Automatic annotation (TrEMBL), chain A:
The lineage of its organism: Bacteria, Bacillati, Actinomycetota, Actinomycetes, Micrococcales. Pathway: Amino-acid biosynthesis; L-leucine biosynthesis; L-leucine from 3-methyl-2-oxobutanoate: step 2/4. It comes from Klugiella xanthotipulae. Its EC number is 4.2.1.33. Its cofactor is [4Fe-4S] cluster. This is 3-isopropylmalate dehydratase large subunit. It catalyses: (2R,3S)-3-isopropylmalate = (2S)-2-isopropylmalate.
From TrEMBL, chain B:
SUPFAM superfamilies: LeuD/IlvD-like (SSF52016). The gene is leuD. Residues 1-116 form the Aconitase A/isopropylmalate dehydratase small subunit swivel domain. One of its GO terms (molecular function) is 3-isopropylmalate dehydratase activity. It catalyses: (2R,3S)-3-isopropylmalate = (2S)-2-isopropylmalate. One of its GO terms (biological process) is L-leucine biosynthetic process. It is an enzyme of class 4 (lyase). This is 3-isopropylmalate dehydratase small subunit. InterPro entries: 3-IsopropMal_deHydase_ssu (IPR004431), Aconitase/3IPM_dehydase_swvl (IPR015928), AconitaseA/IPMdHydase_ssu_swvl (IPR000573), IPMI_Swivel (IPR033940), LeuD (IPR050075). Heterodimer of LeuC and LeuD.
Length: 499, 198
């Protein structure tokens, strides 16, 4: 009995608290705990075999009321009213529709107001909230950890397991605190923080851990910014990322379609306030990052850990002490068609992609629109703006952002994963170079032979204006030298030239 | 999952080592949306050859595969197990298996029985002497009998127990279904519900 009390008062981390509150059966002798899943998100790519498994075994889907599906990976971003041209994409989506209908799962199909990238849909509906467990057959499920939820990606057998039992047998994760202190300079964003973290700890640095992002720089971020950071925890190899819930979180959730109301809301908030990591709780590892001197960040290689400040040059592999790292850097530079020592800012791009579950929320679109408003796009660059969900698209249109982007010369598309992974027709051609607000710069990720530089929405916007990798700081510099990039000026100049 | 205690079926010799998951099922078949119907994809690269063992008369109906060492190495694709299962295999004998393949097999009721390399050679000889001969696998005794030859195999206790009970992960979890139900009864009403609000 005394032992029990001792266990209960031990200071715990946020992750431990959420875990403990979901243990259905505590595993003995190193066996896994059976963990209850509050919310199961489903999309067309990783669900068909799981539904099939249920059918084969004659099992029902245990909790359709905790399951929700959307179409995102394969969906086109143009002509969404027409039949999907690619037959494999079409079949995957049609299969999801048949399965959802058969098992009674709520599905948001292409054309529906709530359709969109699965990790944008959960939060916007108010389904993602603090203190819950969220899974999805998709590694970027870590996004939802921004609310103080325990959220992670799972494989197809596990998808079936959750469908059948609403639980998963899991061994506890280790915990790592990532403390980011200080005030971000204007022009520096959440994306730059997480790219800097990954460059610091490496793409395997988080393996086996749940990362808890804390510190004043994290506290001052909006929910969108926190989602960007948790989204990319997986790129550091972590199982999940989390941020303790606070007033910012509560305000974001409050009033959304599925947010608790009345007495439920009060009970929820009272509980949510108990979740932040206790004073004196011990993490298995800790990392510190100073946000004060952070600058816009950009990747130069083919994994998200290969990044530098935008003001720096392409690194020299020869200067890397680790032989594996050096070999990887050499391979990456060859694939990327880059020469060591080239200033990152001199690198011209063909495409700018503003989208993906990392940076396609309304705040991301607003920030980028603010930069390009009234400006003229660089001639050789095409820019795709792909809202994360149909609702984000509608919101943006209500604010006139679509007009700003189109006046600028960007393409305004329908919602989905799009060029993040190019499962739909939005792909890079071989050798094309892209400044992308997405999360993975793997070889061929955005199209066979395509070259990806991961950037923030602000950098994406500035790059679209200048045609080379750039940040809003470069625009300020240009302005101080009398170069404004204004659309108006150009058209005046063109008119004069025409006379 | 079907219970596996003893099983008798035609054995097919696959006299190759290092049969990786890309050989078992090439990547192009991973685009499918089903978990069944992979029988045509099994060893697709080799099945073009009419002389390939599974294309020959007595082995077309084989249900036990007797393979060389390091079977099922490579990628984590569960499709490799699905393809073997869909073709009709209930067991694979080899002296060494890829780790993930072995784990995936146990999820799908396919027995990955580890047999000494010398004993595999004896089983191959017995099959060669009498093509189409049936082997009997006894999971309780951990033995394989073919004609008058009996050899042992190893498998870890937990997997053996699960196979004998016919328990997949889901079935195992559902043994605690009452605890899940109890947990659900305690679940606070503020927690998310996906069904349309109105
Ligand atoms: S936007 Fe990209 S990373 Fe996000 S879910 Fe879609 S494909 Fe995955």
């Amino acid at each position: 009995m005394t032992e029990q009390i001792a266990v209960d008062v031990r200071p715990r981390t946020l992750a431990e608290k959420v875990w403990d509150d979901h243990v259905v059966v505590r595993g003995e002798d190193g066996n896994p705990d059976l963990i209850y899943i509050d919310l199961h998100l489903v999309h067309e790519v990783t669900s068909p075999q799981a539904f099939d498994g249920l059918r084969l075994a004659g099992r029902p889907l245990r909790r359709v009321d905790l399951t929700i599906a959307t179409e995102d990976h394969n969906t086109p971003t143009l002509n969404i009213d027409r039949q999907i041209a690619d037959p494999t994409s079409r079949i995957q989506i049609e299969t999801l529709r048949t399965n959802a209908a058969e098992f009674g799962v709520r599905l948001h199909s292409l054309g529906d107001k709530e359709q969109g990238i699965v990790h944008v849909v959960g939060p916007q509906l108010g389904l993602t909230m603090p203190g819950i467990t969220v899974v999805c057959g998709d590694s970027h499920t870590s996004t939802h950890g921004a609310f103080g939820a325990m959220a992670f990606g799972i494989g197809t057998s596990e998808v079936e397991h959750v469908m059948a039992t609403q639980t998963l047998p899991l061994k506890p994760f280790k915990t790592m605190a990532i403390r980011v202190e200080g005030e971000l300079r204007p022009g520096v964003t959440a994306k730059d923080i997480i790219l800097a973290v990954i460059a610091k700890i490496g793409t395997g640095g988080g393996q086996g851990y749940v990362l808890e992002f804390c510190g004043s720089a994290i506290r001052s971020l909006s929910m969108e910014g926190r989602m960007t950071i948790c989204n990319m925890s997986i790129e550091a190899g972590a199982r999940a990322g989390m941020v303790a819930p606070d007033e910012v979180t509560f305000e974001y959730v409050r009033g959304r379609d599925h947010a608790p109301t009345g007495a439920d809301w009060d009970e929820a908030v009272a509980y949510w306030k108990t979740l932040p990591t206790d004073e004196g709780a011990v993490f298995d590892a800790e990392v510190f990052l100073d946000a004060t001197d952070l600058e816009p960040f950009v990747t130069w290689g083919t994994n998200p850990g290969q990044g530098v400040l935008l003001s720096e040059p392409v690194p020299h592999p020869a200067e890397m002490s680790d032989p594996n790292e050096r070999a990887a850097a050499e391979r990456a530079l060859e694939y990327m068609g880059l020469i060591a020592g080239t200033p990152m800012k001199d690198i011209p791009v063909d495409t700018v992609f503003l989208g993906s579950c990392t940076n396609s929320r309304i705040e991301d679109l607003r920030a980028a629109a603010e930069v390009v408003r009234g400006k003229k796009k660089a001639d050789n660059v095409r820019m795709l703006v792909v809202p994360g969900s149909a609702r984000v698209r509608l919101e943006a249109e209500a604010e006139g952002l679509d007009q700003i982007f189109q006046d600028f010369g960007a393409e305004w598309r329908f919602a989905g994963c799009s060029m993040c992974l190019g499962m739909n027709p939005d792909q890079l051609a071989p050798g094309e170079r892209c400044a992308s607000t997405s999360n993975r710069n793997f070889e061929g990720r955005q199209g066979k032979g395509g070259r990806t530089h991961l950037v923030s929405p602000l950098v994406a916007a500035a790059t679209a204006i200048r045609g080379t990798l750039s940040s809003p700081w470069d625009l300020q510099n240009d302005a101080s030298q009398g170069i404004t990039h204004d659309a108006q000026d150009t058209s005046t100049a063109e008119r004069e030239a025409a006379l | 999952m079907e219970k596996f205690t003893t099983f008798t079926g035609i054995a097919a010799p696959l006299e190759r080592s290092n049969v990786d998951t890309d050989q078992i099922i090439p990547a192009v078949y991973l685009k499918r949306v089903t978990k069944t119907g992979f029988e045509d994809a099994l060893f697709a690269g080799w099945r073009q050859d009419p002389e390939f063992v599974l294309n020959r008369a007595p082995f077309q109906g084989a249900s036990v595969l007797v393979a060389g060492p390091d079977f099922g190495t490579g990628s984590s694709r569960e499709h490799a197990v699905w393809a073997l299962r869909d073709f009709g295999f209930r067991a694979v004998l080899s002296s060494r298996f890829g780790d993930i393949f072995r784990g995936n097999s146990s999820k799908q009721g396919l027995l990955a029985a580890q047999v000494e390399e010398a004993d595999i050679a004896k089983v191959w000889a017995a099959i060669e002497a009498n093509p189409g001969v049936e082997v009997t696998i006894n999971l309780e005794e951990r033995s394989v009998r073919v004609s008058d030859l009996t050899v042992g195999f190893s498998i870890d206790d937990y997997t053996r127990w699960r196979l004998m009970e016919g328990l997949d992960d889901i079935a195992l979890t559902l043994r605690n279904e009452h605890k899940i139900t109890e947990f659900e009864a305690r679940r606070q009403s503020w927690r998310p519900q996906t069904l349309p609000v109105k």
